[in-house]
Amino acid sequence: MVCLVLCGKLRLVIKEICAITVLANKLCMFVLLFSLARILGVELYGVFSYHYAIVTGIATVVGECLSVALSRYAVLNAEEVNYKTSLGLMLWGGIIVAALCVIVFLIFPAPASSYGMNPGYLLIGAFFLGFACVCNLTITGLMFSLNASGKWAVALAAHGLLGLLLVVSIAKITGQIEGVILTLAICTLIAPAYGFFTIKKNHFSHDDKGGRESSFFRQIAALLSRSGAPTIAGSMLLGAPVHIVCLMIFAKSSLNVSEVGYFSLFFLFYILVTVLPSSLTSYAIVKLAGRGKSASKLYLMLGLSISVCLPVFLVLSQSYWLCLLGSRFCSKNDLLAYAVLAGGIGLTTTIVTQILHSKNMTRVVFLGSCIYAFVYLLLTVVAGLKGNMLAVDLFRSFVFALAAQIAVLAVLGGRKLVQ
């Protein structure tokens, strides 16, 4: 009996370790991207970040929706889930995303740069990176729905550390982005490859059932319908895709490719303020749940305090670390201010959205997303028509769009937030 209890606790600890490792991998990615900006220079980093932002933006919509839908379906339907079909859906989703990335770059190439690059190698790298991102997100979600072992935690750690070391090394050796993108794609497949073969080894034998089976593509279509993946993807279409369109407009109308590099680098501070604390506060709300009706208030207060304190800390301490990114970034404190302001608003928006969803106010959330998309696109188009856009112009459009979204959520859902 004691052994069973200890084993159960160990499995819980392993899952928490895996969650912490995923969070650490995000930090490794931030360090990797900051390092690339310093090694490649702002102009070449602008070309790299254009490809990286679009690939990951498209892949996130598909990868996140498959991760949430398939892992949730595996937990709720443990007896009838078919992992062979789930992984097949993941592979086809990755191939479609990869092909879509290639098509987008053929129609909307990166801004012109003084560096000579091989477009063919860039497209190959973009194809594999899009495929790898979808597989990475999907497999991570599926592994969390299973009884993950300590080996999975090791695979996740190797995934992040090897990616950081190898990609930075290739950037220093070659000084070109073709090899950087392809190496990043290969490293992104480390953890998914281990997870894929683990699931195949432990669960494929249970998927073979007697009786007449439908075709593989019919099984995939049925899984899509039962898991709710299209609905989840639809709810994400006003986020990353809108930002990708605005980034394309900016790249077409920017003063030069360096402005794209400046925007992409400082956009990482928005992600730093928004993504990492939201991951931690998701854990905190579980701890606060036992406080009854006051949980939402405490969760909101926690998020608001982080969304104010973290940006203020980054701005006040910039003289100690900003120039470490490179001498050309020392004077860009206006971009830092816009980025962390957007991060604070974005973090608050994420928390408010979660609370409103829990209170069955999905329509209000959707309306706020529509307002965000409309304002962001409108202001970006207007700035693009004037030409010679600067990074600060796109940041300004982004901040106004987020402010409009949170205003709608606060006005229409304010009563529910304070209950």
Automatic annotation (TrEMBL):
Topology term for the membrane: Multi-pass membrane protein
Keyword match Protein biosynthesis: no
Keywords: Cell membrane, Membrane, Transmembrane, Transmembrane helix
TM regions (residue ranges): 12-37, 49-75, 87-108, 120-145, 152-173, 179-199, 220-250, 262-286, 298-316, 336-357, 364-385, 397-414
The UniProt record lists the keyword Zinc: no
Location relative to the cell: Cell membrane
GO cellular component: plasma membrane
Full protein name: Polysaccharide biosynthesis protein
